[in-house]
Amino acid sequence: MQASVNKVAAKLSLLPLLTFVALFLGAGLYLQSQGVDYAFYQLPAPVAILPAIVIAFWVNRKPINDSVDTFIKGAGHSNIITMCLIYLLAGAFSAVAGATGGVDAVVNAGLSLIPPSMLLPGLFLIAAVVSTAMGTSMGTIGAIGPIAYAVSLKTGIDPALMAGTIVSGAMFGDNLSIISDTTIAATRTQGCEMKDKFKENLKIAIPAAILTIALLTFLTPEPQAVETKDFDWLLVLPYAFILVLAVAGLNVFVVLFSGIIFAAAMGFTANYEIGSFAKDVYKGFSDMQEIFLLSMFIGGLSEFIRVNGGLDYLAHKIQGLTAFIAKFHRKVADQLGIAALVLTSNLCIANNTVSIIVAGPVAKKLAEDGKISAKRSASLLDIFACVMQGSLPYGAQALLLGATFKISPWDVSTSSFYCFILAFTAIAVICLRRNKA
Predict the structure, then answer these.
(1) Is residue 20 a contact partner of residue 301, using CB atoms and an 8 Å limit?
(2) What is the superkingdom listed in this entry's lineage (predicted)?
(3) Which letter, b or e, does each residue of 223-246 get, where b requires 16 or more Cβ atoms within 10 Å of its Cβ?
(4) How many Cα atoms are found within 13 Å in the side-chain-facing hemisphere of 181?
(5) Most buried of the four, 153, 170, 187, 317, by CB within 10 Å?
């Protein structure tokens, strides 16, 4: 009888999370049917989750003070607070480096180095470098999209192919960057170091990138020269600086704080003002407000699910779905389970960071049960979230590039070759390196 009651409680504990996903997805689909631009981004996620939190308190069936304590324990968990602080510093670095002209410098430096016969693979690499440096696919697309559109018009390259190339490169860096909110979410929910996740990720992302470059080289039309603007190489250095420090294994707070100071110092050589520096740091903080709040709310919601057995129940169900594969290899089954979990989450939410935060606790449970390393589970979470996000016609990336290139978002998403290649590469690594997870 007790087991039956516990099972019911476990199922009910998932109701708030399902409510959040249904509300977020339902609002997006409705607004999309009404022709609203960026339909899936009109209802802020921190607002959409509030009814789910109310339901969680109701489902918990405990005195209100006990429920509040449970929620605060989850929202204030050390991993959640660490994640939120990293978000703030990453936002500040991105804002300061961008305000000093670093993004334009990286883009023009890349364009100046591209041979005309390698235009598409070259633009893929530029987008990859910029997104790895900035930690944001949307910021990369916003910076490079208009330039790529102009190049497309001048060279006659198919706009859909050009747009797909840009989103491919943007998702490469979004997945790999140590200051990307997806990396921050994946490493904190799985409990691993950023440098370890970065190195694990490289084993999958680099082969996928090489295959993509080969494909884009084949698809590049007759050579065309592209004009570039003047740039300062000093403004490129802050991005290289934080990448080197991160890979060297320094504490992430030291890396990001040092990066902010270094970016400002490089900016001062180009007439960047101290007053602007303070404002840009705060702007970077403000840019992270939504994901900061959502992370805390999801943390509190997840604690309700955990204490009522929801995580164990969901992990058990996913293992049931992969039971046939588990007969041959348990680690392969659990890794594919993690992939399916975050793919489904991202399909519903259309936000790769949020999908990682939602799927993270269950993925950690699957990884622990299957004796999968934290760096592998973090890598898989980030990879498959980015695969789905870059392939969604209603994702922000496809919507923005569709508007920039004046084409359908569907044309953008179906031309995101890197995302498809990355998915196949990741599955191949899961199957072929199954004993090294």
Answers:
(1) yes
(2) Bacteria
(3) eeebeeeebbebbbbbbebbbebb
(4) 29
(5) 170
Give the start-to-end residue ranges of the domains of the chain.
2-436
Q: Output DSSP code: residue 142.
A: H
Residue 124's Cβ-count burial label (10 Å; 0-12, 13-18, 19+) is buried
Residue at token pair 């790895």 = 132
Among 30-44, 176-190, 371-385, the least confident range: 30-44
| Highest mean pLDDT pick, 277-281, 306-310, 406-410 | 277-281
Helices 137-155 and 396-405 sit at what angle, rounded to 10 degrees?
30
- C-alpha 259 chain-centroid distance: 21
Q: Is the dihedral of CA 204, 361, 246, 256 positive or negative?
A: positive
23-to-20, 53, 328, 423 alpha-carbon distances in Å: 5, 13, 39, 28
Decide: 125 and 169 in contact? Cβ < 8 Å. yes
Would you say 357 and 314 are in contact if contact means Cβ atoms under 8 Å apart? no
Q: What is the 8-class DSSP label of residue 124?
A: H
Is the Cβ–Cβ distance between 363 and 381 less than 8 Å?
yes
Distance of alpha carbon 243 from its chain centroid, rounded? 17
DSSP-assigned states of every residue in 357-375: HHHHHHHHHHHHHTT--HH
Q: How many helices (H) and strands (E) does the chain have?
A: 24, 0
Q: What single-letter amino acid sits at 78?
A: S
Crossing angle of helices 119-134 and 137-155, in 10° steps, is: 160
Structural contact between residues 20 and 56, judged by C-beta atoms closer than 8 angstroms: no
Query: Do the beta carbons of residue 129 and residue 165 sit within 8 Å?
Result: no
Q: Residue 188: name the closest of 196, 348, 366 by CA.
A: 196
Q: How far is CA 183 from each of CA 141, 142, 194, 269, 410, rounded to the nearest angstrom?
A: 19, 20, 7, 31, 27
Place of tokens 């009404």: 34
HEC sequence for 260-294 = HHHHHHHHHCCCCCHHHHHHHHHHHHHHCHHHHHH
Calpha distance 144→148 (Å, rounded): 6
Kindly state the average pLDDT of the residues 288-304: 82
pTM higher than 0.90:
no
How big, in percent rounded to 5, are the helix, strand and coil portions of the chain? 80, 0, 20
